Amino acid sequence: MSFIIAIDGPAASGKGTIARALARHFGFHHLDTGLLYRATGVKGGDPVAAARNLTAEDLTRPQLRSAEAGQAASRVAAIPQVREALVDFQRRFAAREPGAVLDGRDIGTVICPDAQVKLYVVASDRVRADRRAAELGADPAAMLDQLRERDRRDSERASAPLRPADDAVVIDTSDLQIDEAVAAAIAAVDRVRPAR
Ligand code: CDP
Ligand code: CDP
């Protein structure tokens, strides 16, 4: 059976950075599930059809990292049929040997409720806005408004809202350097993964 690490949390909390580092450390596959929603949002047209017909090319477009793509993603992500259209791909990815790390909003709660390790990565609103603004060369105050709006939409939607799984380990990266956050995540995995 493959080993699954589910990572969820609000925008720019550091989930993707931790997910990539864990995948490298353990030799696992990594899927940034936010890209599926971003690609659906920027594709235009009927979002349900867009989600059903995503191609590898759709997932590599440079504009997917933009704040606009993030907002478009959170709008289409509230549509239950869009979410349904993306479930099988994510679950098949999670089953890849020898293991997989998936990061998003509903990995530990909906996509992989039986994941061996669940992490919920948080950081203060301000820290997250400053980090994402630095990354995109954007204004921190405007970024703070945007992230708050997106987090609210993600948390309040009826279908797979953002929330920690009951058995998730919470990692607050507000005062952590990247290597410290990664070390905390590795320690959480090592606690449940039998040494091999
Ligand atoms: O995937 P998610 O949107 O949760 O966040 P990310 O893209 O991994 O991280 C957002 C930004 O915060 C990136 O520029 C990271 O380098 C930075 N960062 C971090 O992830 N963790 C820290 N402890 C400090 C900074
Ligand atoms: O990197 P960041 O945390 O800013 O965003 P992302 O992970 O790329 O996700 C973009 C948007 O997609 C989120 O605001 C959610 O609305 C949606 N999303 C989701 O609903 N479920 C997931 N598993 C991943 C992303």
Secondary structure layout plus pairing:
Elements: E1 3-8, H1 15-26, E2 29-32, H2 34-43, H3 47-52, H4 67-76, H5 80-94, E3 99-104, H6 107-111, E4 117-122, H7 125-136, H8 140-156, E5 169-172, H9 178-192
Parallel strand pairs: 1-3, 1-4, 2-3, 4-5
The structure holds cytidine-5'-diphosphate (2 copies).
The site of one cytidine-5'-diphosphate has 16 residues, from helix 2, helix 4 and helix 8.
Explain how this protein is built.
This protein is α/β, with parallel strands linked by helices. It has one domain: P-loop containing nucleotide triphosphate hydrolases (Rossmann fold), CATH 3.40.50.300. It has 9 helices and 5 strands, in the order E-H-E-H-H-H-H-E-H-E-H-H-E-H. The protein has a 5-stranded parallel beta sheet with strand order 2-3-1-4-5, with helices on both faces. Helix 2 crosses helix 4 and helix 7 crosses helix 8. The longest helix is centred in the C-terminal third of the chain and has 17 residues. It is globular and about 50 Å long. The model has no long low-confidence stretch (mean pLDDT 97). Bound molecules: cytidine-5'-diphosphate (CDP) (2 copies). The site of one cytidine-5'-diphosphate has 16 residues, from helix 1, helix 7 and helix 9. InterPro entries: Cytidylate_kin, Cytidylate_kinase_dom, P-loop_NTPase. This is Cytidylate kinase. Its EC number is 2.7.4.25. It comes from Paracoccus stylophorae. It is found in: Cytoplasm.
Question: Whole-number radius of gyration?
Answer: 16 Å
Write the H/E string, N to C: EHEHHHHEHEHHEH
Mean pLDDT: 97
Our estimate of the beta-strand percent is 5-15%
Q: How many domain units? A: 1
CA-CA gap between termini? 14 Å
What's the overall geometry? globular
Give the ligands present: cytidine-5'-diphosphate
Main sheet: strands, sense, barrel: 5 strands, parallel
Q: Please report the number of helical segments.
A: 9
Question: Which fold does the CATH topology refer to?
Answer: Rossmann fold
- At the first level of CATH, the class is Alpha Beta
CATH architectural arrangement:
3-Layer(aba) Sandwich
**Could you estimate the helical fraction of the residues in percent?**
40-55%
| Category from helices, strands and their pairing | alpha/beta
Strand order of the largest sheet: 2-3-1-4-5
Question: By CATH's scheme, which homologous superfamily applies?
Answer: P-loop containing nucleotide triphosphate hydrolases
- As residue ranges, the low-confidence spans are none
Number of strands: 5
